[in-house]
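> @MW can you paste both from yesterday?
MW: sure, first one:
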Amino acid sequence: MVNRLAQGNNKQLTLVEIAEQQKQTSGTMQSIADAVISQAKKLGADDAEVWSYNTIGNSVEVRNGELETLEYNQDSHLGINVYFEQRKGTVSINDLTEAAALQGLEAACNIAKFTEPDPYAGLVEASRMASEFKDLSLDHPFALSIDDMLEAAKLAESSALDNTHIKQSEGANCYSHRSVSCYANSHDFCGFNKTTRYSLSNVLIGQTDKGMLRDGYYTLGREYADLLAPNLVGAEAANRIQSKLIQGTCSSGKFPVIFNPEVARGLWTHLFGALKGGALYQRSSFMLDKLGETILPKEITIIEDPFILKGLGSSNYDSDGVATAKRTIVEQGQLEGYFLSGYSARRLGMETTGNAGGIHNILIDSPKQSLQSMMKDLGTGLLVTEVMGQGVNIVTGNYSRGASGFWFENGQIKHYVQEITIAGNLEDMFQSIVALGDDVDSRSSILTGSVAIRSMTIAA
């Protein structure tokens, strides 16, 4: 049995106890930010910003009914940016003490002396800073003990192993962490985020006449009570193995392709990556100069909503301190907005969209169908459940991935197929979406169901 435990009194704290401990950490973060910004001004900096975070939690892994790994994790980080006439100095350290932070500030100021002025560098104007902080229900400390986590992991695994086709378990894992982060700048802005995150997963190995199969399932959320029950996690992992037992081949050529929700998330991620400011100002995006153009079927509208309660991408402000807002990215197929930080917005001669640090919750709005209805309408094609490889070119939009999934004919799944390739061009693929599924997966900040594409090239 591997047993990795941090030494000391903190090694088996619940998130309730960790939350109490992090109250002091939050105060330390704010005092460090105040001291650094005050000292930066004394040293002649035009502006300064400080961000820090502290994440603490526990993780247990069970294999074949026995404890395999028990981990206590604690991670802290602090970063400082200073600006002298648009010359930027940056430092990053792992020591949340004022002495270390002030030493880091001195280093950042020295770095700035040797950098070239960047006309786009600097803080976003003070008027854009967040001033309203809604309770987004992101922080749910729960007195989940190590014994509770072990019991949940063991139940998930035992529920999965109660199946004759399951050869062995690769492990069931239960995870609980709480994070505190702080961002402050010389506009007198200071914001805190406090979040919890829980997950339970199980990975299995199945035995078939043609060899072994690997699959699994997981559940996650901000609140432990929102997780799927352990026995249902195990049962779903086993069902996924069971569904792959009948294997076969598929035809090569152009056929309809349906991406299941887990794979569809990745598909949307490629689009949103092409709409990010960095890709746009570097002119390395297949979405260049598409603002106002039709990029999706008119039935589809995409909304970014940073205010979803318990959302995995929810926040009142971005990494620049800019207030977030609910907004439309695509309106009835037409591109209405990008994802811009303060820096990328200046490079493009535009306004920040509050996306420094990433994209917030994404809602794909469209008439939706059941997966069975989608397959019936398409007739014969491929339901993709896994993709592999790096064959996506965000500059040209060319898409070629290894894939596995289920071949369906006359609207009915026939068998499982693997070691095939699917190919197309992202711009064409998005224009060729013919249906979205009602099987929306909430385990991500991109809330999407299955996505059906009229035609892609399949090579078996």
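MW: second:
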Amino acid sequence: MKKIYLVDDQPIANFITKKLLEIEGFSENVFDFTDPVMAFQKISEEQDAIIFLDLNMPKMNGWQFLEELQQRNIKHTIIILSSSTSEIDKTRASTFKNVVKYMEKPMNRDKFSELSTYLKTG
């Protein structure tokens, strides 16, 4: 099974996503980070992971995270999970080949069901 990384500076957002993953049977290989720099260091050592990524974070925002992945040719599956409802952000996210889905917070079971294709491929 692929490793799943939750990268969001808000612990409650990671908690909700992690609980939904557990409910859907993904309790193993799930790692959460509130520090995007630490997350990037760990994730850059991995191959073929799934990353739930927030955009608005201190130290390293989601855009910087995506750009760094792209520059290093690291090809994880990225699901943007952001509070931003901006069409500009959605369009910008679609320019990154690794981004397979843009979802607005808060995560819930209905939204989570849209992700089964990406999660079950590992």
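> thanks! The mean pLDDT is 92.
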